[in-house]
Task: structure prediction
Amino acid sequence: MTTNPARVADKAGSAVAWETTSAAETHALGKALGEACVEREVMALVGPLGAGKTCLVRGIAEGLGVPTELVTSPTFVLIHEYAGRLALYHADLYRLEERDAVNGLGLEEYTETPGVTVIEWAERAPGVLPHDHLWITLDHLGGDRRRVALHPRGARSAELVARAVARLAAQLRTGGA
Ligand SMILES: Nc1ncnc2c1ncn2[C@@H]1O[C@H](COP(=O)(O)OP(=O)(O)OP(=O)(O)O)[C@@H](O)[C@H]1O
Ligand SMILES: [Mg+2]
Result:
């Protein structure tokens, strides 16, 4: 991972993208995001099976002071809540049977509650996302390489990205991750 994330054109503003070469690097990116969270944040994670969404969520959890070993993909329960510096609400919509089923989950209430809502397979329920959210895409680049791109969808999420980028740059400069 480089200290200068590639800035790529994005139709809704500026996105920041990294190429990670291990799960540990994706975790470190998540940790910086978790540390950068304030009050209430909403992150939508989109990417194919095994792309590293849950890996990133574990990093976010660590950045929020949630014990990362507790964080697993929600299965029968589609949303898990964890206590940390800020609460973490972790949803995984992979097993959502039909689009209408999302209405019964109360996801919108989570996104309006103080704390950090992170939704895997968020493209399955676009209607629950607040106007301002951080859209995160993860893609396989072969082997252990992944492309992780942060697409802020508003001023609030742009500030979250700016804080996370500053933290990562500082950590990489000092050799810590
Ligand atoms: N650069 C990388 N970033 C993240 N994970 C990586 C990377 N390289 C290898 N891996 C491995 O890929 C897997 C990613 O699994 P993870 O559960 O995080 O994916 P996911 O996107 O949540 O998948 P699912 O859609 O099944 O929930 C892990 O086994 C992890 O160790
Ligand atoms: Mg997952």
About this structure: The mean pLDDT is 89. The first strand starts at residue 6 and ends at 10.
